[in-house]
Structures are given as C-alpha cells and as structure tokens.
Amino acid sequence: MEANKVPDIVVGRLPIYLRALTYLAEQGQAVVSSQELGQRLGISSAQIRKDLSHFGEFGKQGTGYEVAYLRDQLRRILQIENRWPVVLVGCGALGTALAYYQGFRAKGFEVVAVFDNDPNKIGQAVSDKVIMDVADLPDYVRNNAIKIAIVAVPSSAAQQTVDVLVSCGIKAILNYAPINVSVPAGIQVQYIDPSVHLQRMTFYL
Amino acid sequence: MEANKVPDIVVGRLPIYLRALTYLAEQGQAVVSSQELGQRLGISSAQIRKDLSHFGEFGKQGTGYEVAYLRDQLRRILQIENRWPVVLVGCGALGTALAYYQGFRAKGFEVVAVFDNDPNKIGQAVSDKVIMDVADLPDYVRNNAIKIAIVAVPSSAAQQTVDVLVSCGIKAILNYAPINVSVPAGIQVQYIDPSVHLQRMTFYL
Fold this sequence. Notes:
2 copies of one chain form a homodimer.
Chain A: H1 8-26, E1 31-32, H2 34-41, H3 45-53, E2 59-60, E3 64-66, H4 67-77, E4 84-89, H5 93-100, E5 109-116, E6 125-126, E7 129-130, E8 132-133, H6 137-143, E9 148-151, H7 155-167, E10 172-175, E11 188-191, H8 194-202
Helix pairs in contact in A: 1-4, 2-3
C-alpha cells in the first residue's frame, strides 16, 4: 500500500492541494500549472511536482494539470470519495460550533452523533442532532463501525476520552483539547490548538 | 536574528515542546529527559535535542532539562513573555467560540476586540466584549498598534478581510476560513482547517 512509502509530510500537503483544486474547479478553471498552484499556496512548483509524483503521472509537460481530474485523484488517494461518519465528543462552545459547522460534508465527513457528559446538555438539540450521553458512546461507535472521532472536551478529560474511543474501535482522532494524548501504535491523532499556531508566528514578529 | 537561521519546521515544534513543558511544570515535575519528552510527544529524542540546540545549551548530559527553565527560555524565544493583544474578525458560531475561549491568556495572547459586519450583531455582547463594526477595524488596529489577528469569516470574505488587516499593520494572521489567502512578503499566515487534518488521517485508514 502506498501509505507505507510516502513521507507523512507529503501526505500532509495533499489536503492543501485538494482544497486549492476544489476552489479552482468551482471557479471554472480547467487546467492549472504547478507554478500557479505553488504561487497560490506558497509552496515551490518543484515541491508540488515531487509530492504528486509519489502517486503517479498527473500532469503533462508544458500544459499542467487538469484541475477536475487531479482533484478527483486526490480524493481517491485520501480515501474521501465517500463520506466518513464522525462522532463529536464534547459539546461546549467549541463543540457546538463544530456541530453547526457546514464545511465537513463537502470535504468527505459528516458528524453523525454528538456526545457530552453534562446531564443538562444530554437530550438537548444542537444543530440537527440530539446530544447523547457519553456513556452510550462505546455502543454507538461499535454498532455503527465509526472510525473517526473529534474530541472537544477539556484538557483534563482528553486522555480518558481518547482511551475510551480507542477501546471501541476509533482509528483516527482530531483532538482540540490543548494537550498531547497517548495512543497505541496504528491510531492516528491530529491536533488543533490555535495557541500553537499563534506562538509559531510570534517567533518572527 | 535567530529567526533567519532556524528552519521553519523547527520553529513549528517549539510551541509543542512549550505546551508539554508547561504541563509538566504544572504537575510539579522539575527535570525531564529528551527521551521522556519525546515519548510524550511522539518525536525522537535526537530530534528534540537537535531542535533545541539551535537556540543554545539547555540540558546537561545524563540529567536532562530543567522543566521550568526550559519553559521560560522557550517563552522568551517565541516572544510570548508578555501577552500579545489580538483582534478577532468574524463572530459567527466559530468566532463566538473563540471569543469565549479561555485558553489564549495563559499562552501569551488576549483577544482585545471582536468585529463583525452584521448590523444585528454589532453592539451585542460576546464573552466580555461588545462586537464592533468591522468598518472601525482599521482605526482600532492602528490606534492600538495591534500586530495579530484571527480571521473567522466565511471563505468568500477571507481575502478581502486579510487585505484590510495587512493594510492597517497586522503582521500575523490565524486564518480559520478554509481557503488560502495571498499576503505580501513578511506577513505570517497560519491556517486552521479541521477538514485538512481529517483528510490527512483518512489516507492511512
């Protein structure tokens, strides 16, 4: 399988390419050169060509890439041709914003259930969902063969939440709690922490 | 200045180290080895030692790093010893969650003003702020010498918002709109797009 050979940093750039190609396709653009794509993304054209060469021959010398074709190939490579069901754990201010977020569906994901441990929230509506008891999470994940979870709980509850998710079959976790969590080998974790991004910029100010 | 010599990918890991060290200090841990830090973060101890060596000698062979000292040095290197004032543009569901987010202050940032262009929102309270008219943003940024902005507007308004921010002196932008924006040289942009992180993981599923 390709996944074993491709550097993780290359995989990390594919969604960025896909996002730009999706935008260009929506704008009606049929062909894009690696130069134009690179300029748009702040990545060198050589890097883009090298990254994509891991997966095959997508462009023609001198004419560039067919936008819709490359977009569809990246969707296939990233395995988002179909929509993945996702559970959301934690329905505070951030979890609520994520529950309402309309951007997931077009990108290959759908939040199918929202969980919290607060008795005052359980049973309440958020977006088009009813908040479920986190005690029912393991059964829900197993019964629906869910593989992806978004964690938006406080830091103090993050590791415990992740342990439960892993134990019931979750393979990929997007963690919004600002703390590093431990997972067994083979489980993917990605972090979103706005402070980390801000701190990365202040270095240069 | 150090900023010119250090690879950007190294700078990107410093906030991760800082987050772990801050956590360990809160737990009362005085000393940490690069091995323990690496295990916690999923980064090799050699990489950590190499990254930190760009900035000086922080550890002693065989004893490891003093947690509080290294934390303070990283705060100095990242220039977050003092708190940066930040403007937040866009007060939809996500902007609202960010306005209420309590995590920024401890990390060196404070949202000092929130802007929107919706007449129904302007003048309303969000967290301890009153939402201001985005038309007043340039004056506010200039008068208060703000350097950092968080953009949480729809994709369709992102480039225009960024152009305004740059024109009035903003140097670092954290962009939540799921679209790449163009900025002049010398302006930092970081992106937060949960779909990009999710897609990066589905590659491996």
